[in-house]
Amino acid sequence: MRMCYEAIGSSGGRYVVLEAITIPVKYTRRDVRADWLMAPTITGAPVNIPGLYGRPSTPEHRKFGASLFLLAEELLKEGRIKNHPLDIREGGLENIPTYVEDLRMGNVRGKRQIVPLLGA
């Protein structure tokens, strides 16, 4: 976060993260609007997790989510955006450590890894 705040110019800006931000950290710079998000609220449902992670039901998030998914579907159909190519890996759960090592070594890039579960 410190690095990101330093990268934001003197006129301020916006900083959005995937984890909850404590109030003292959030206001490290008054010219930066900091917030966080939790993707499950895009369905409009509450997030029933105690503490900072809990969120009430938010109808506005659901409305936004519905329009976002319709837009994404349209853009995909028109070919204006494309999904990552799939890399279907065989061997089931027992081979996942090998696949993780492939990722670490940089042998797999720009593909969505799919591991079918045998017997599922």
Can you describe this structure?
This protein has 120 residues and is of the alpha/beta class. It folds into two domains: 2-78, NAD(P)-binding Rossmann-like Domain (Rossmann fold); 84-120, no CATH class. It has four helices and four strands. The strands form two sheets. Strands 1-2 form a two-stranded parallel ribbon. The protein has a two-stranded parallel ribbon with strand order 3-4. The protein is extended and about 50 Å long. The protein starts with a helix and ends in a 6-residue tail after the last strand.
Describe what is shown at a glance.
The chain has 120 residues and is α/β, with parallel strands linked by helices. It is built from four helices and four strands, in the order αβαβαβαβ.
